[in-house]
Specification:
This protein has seven helices and no strands. By secondary structure, it is mostly helical. It has two domains: about 90 residues, no CATH class; about 50 residues.
Length: about 160
């Protein structure tokens, strides 16, 4: 039974990641780091590099993309500014799953076990949990929303 359901696990993890990242995407107002990112991204194209060099520690490519994204959408709403990051988070679930499978299969082979069937369950569960929990960590390294089940300052 488990062997037949195992191929459905990755699509299920991606669906959970999509639900997690897209659910209430624009329901809360901007966080402080998002206000600064949108401020940098909405400057004239020539000013994005200067603003990134003086205000941010991140590489400017994200801000150039955000500049074009918001310009083409014509909206500065919360969901519009957060959607590219949410899509990247959803797409990250697959590679994290693949890496977890690669690492766990290698460990199973090193211990003398095979790589067939649902042996790397622990690593895959960790990958699924990462797809759900990565949303709660802000770009500045601070934790948003719920940490260890308790209410947070900027609960989303």
């Amino acid at each position: 039974m488990r062997a037949r359901l195992w191929p459905l696990a990755l699509p299920a993890v991606i669906a959970v990641a999509a639900a997690n990242f897209l659910w209430q995407l624009g329901s809360s107002s901007y966080f402080v780091d998002e206000v600064q990112s949108v401020d940098v991204a909405t400057r004239p194209l020539g000013g994005v590099l200067h603003a990134t060099a003086t205000l941010e520690v991140s590489p400017p490519a994200y801000f150039y993309f955000e500049h074009e994204w918001l310009g083409h959408l014509g909206s500065l709403s919360e969901w519009a500014a957060r959607l590219p990051s949410a899509i990247c988070g959803i797409l990250l679930a697959g590679p994290v799953w693949w890496l977890a499978t690669l690492v766990s299969d290698r460990r199973a082979v090193d211990r003398g076990g095979g790589s067939g069937g649902p042996q790397p369950v622990r690593a895959r569960v960790c990958a699924a949990r990462a797809a759900v929990r990565v949303r709660d960590v802000g770009g500045d390294g601070g934790v948003r929303g719920r940490a260890r089940g308790g209410p947070g300052v900027g609960a989303a």
